[in-house]
Amino acid sequence: MDLGIGEVAERSGLSVHALRFYEREGLFANPVRRLSNGRRIYHEEDLEWLAICTRLRSSGMALATIRQYIELVRQGPGNEHERLELLREHADHVAAQVEELNETLAVMRQKVRIYEDHLVRGEADRLWNPSHPDNARAGSHQRSCSA
């Protein structure tokens, strides 16, 4: 079934501008076909690839790496180990990002608990304020940790 760019944009959640960018950057697994009048024609497999490609992009995969993966796919059978290694490397990168985000989330949750505790006890004014003259002189680690 032939799909126009507007329908692909609607179904993929990408803008028409983004679809043209993906095409210009060579990020489609198959070249985008065009009618004699220049109108772009897409197929269901293009939508399936876009779903994968947008996940790769949202996970932080560089355009160059996506292009490298696409080139390997286009070459056909025989390079599956290379594709697997590329995907494994990126999966490791994503796992490291997730770990870093989890550590950041733990810090943020601790900060929320500190603020909640201070507010419940009516001691919000004791939260560290770097512009307050007493805090600037004190340089207290205790106060800076509860900022």
Describe the fold and architecture.
Helices cover 66% and strands 3% of the residues. The protein starts with a helix and ends with a helix. Strand 1 (33-34) and strand 2 form a beta hairpin. It has helices spanning 5-12, 16-24, 44-58, 63-75, 80-120, 133-138, 141-145; strands at residues 33-34, 40-41. The longest helix has 41 residues, at 80-120. 9% of the residues are buried. With 147 residues, the protein is mainly α. The protein has a two-stranded antiparallel sheet with strand order 1-2. Helix 4 (63-75) runs antiparallel to helix 5 (80-120).
Short description:
By secondary structure, the chain is mainly α.
Q: Largest sheet at a glance?
A: 2 strands, antiparallel
- In whole angstroms, the N-to-C terminal distance is 58 Å
Please report which band the strand proportion falls in: under 5%, 5-15%, 15-25%, 25-35%, 35-45% or over 45%.
Answer: under 5%
Compute the number of strand runs.
2
Give the SSE map:
Layout: H1 5-12, H2 16-24, E1 33-34, E2 40-41, H3 44-58, H4 63-75, H5 80-120, H6 133-138, H7 141-145
Antiparallel strand pairs: 1-2
